[in-house]
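Chapter review: from sequence to fold.
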Amino acid sequence: MSNSIPTQLRFPPFAGFTIRADFEGGALSSDFGPLLLRGVDQQIGLVHRLAQAIDDRRHASYIDHSLDDLLTQRIFQIACGYADANDANALRRDPMFKLGAERKPLEAEQDLASAPTFSRLENAVNTRDLYRLAEAFVEQFVASYGKPPEMIVLDMDHSEDRTHGQQELAFYNHHYQSHCYLPLFLFEGLSGKFITAALRPGKRPKGAENAMILKRVLKRLRQHWHETRILLRGDAHFANVELMQLALDDPYTDFLFGLTGNSRLKKLFWLNIPDTSRRDKLFNNRGANHESETQLQAVSARI
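The token string follows.
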């Protein structure tokens, strides 16, 4: 193999250990991702920020794995494709995952946590912890900017998270044809950065619920960025009076929401297409498109 590279790959040392990558064997692992993730987390400090948001109510005498270690192991496993907590039983001895969690890879007493530990952790987290975790993600997003940006686009969307069995608050959602949760995800539309998420039941949210979540996120952002222009962007089920009023109350916030069709909007749309042949193509879905602007004043919030 004339294209092979004998040079070893070197990574940041830990506890006196030199970390190198080669092809000579030894304690083997099929996963290299934990080392890359460790390097990224050393730069951004996300895992520690999330650990600080959770109230650790365990008795100190019975703790073998800190919250930082548990979150590191769980997050790295998910990022490497091991979403099931039961995978921890096999991966707790994996040398790469142990190195990713800054543990000695060949010593049995340095093994990572098992699945029952994660089961207890997931059941111990309460709603106050979840709220602080959501805030921690917002703070991480703010920290990713060196200075306040001139503008951000706050993209909002709900996503199906299918459930299996009798999981609490898992409802049947007709749109997705499944029993699921329907968490709200917020991303920055210009950079693609993750802002935060809110875990919620599988039913369709009302305008007041969306506004309640966005109000808290905007308040957090405004603590750091007083004059940054923020555009709220979402599809038709965000087009409600509560969210619109939330944007109108802030002089530096605008909104751009889709609207579902109705007879009044359709009439205004067709009046803006004088070309009958073009109108025919649009009506019969032949690939034509048309953009126009119009003024619409509603006597109530329903249009």
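Two observations follow directly from the output. Confidence is low (pLDDT under 50) at residues 299-303. Residues 262-303 form one domain.
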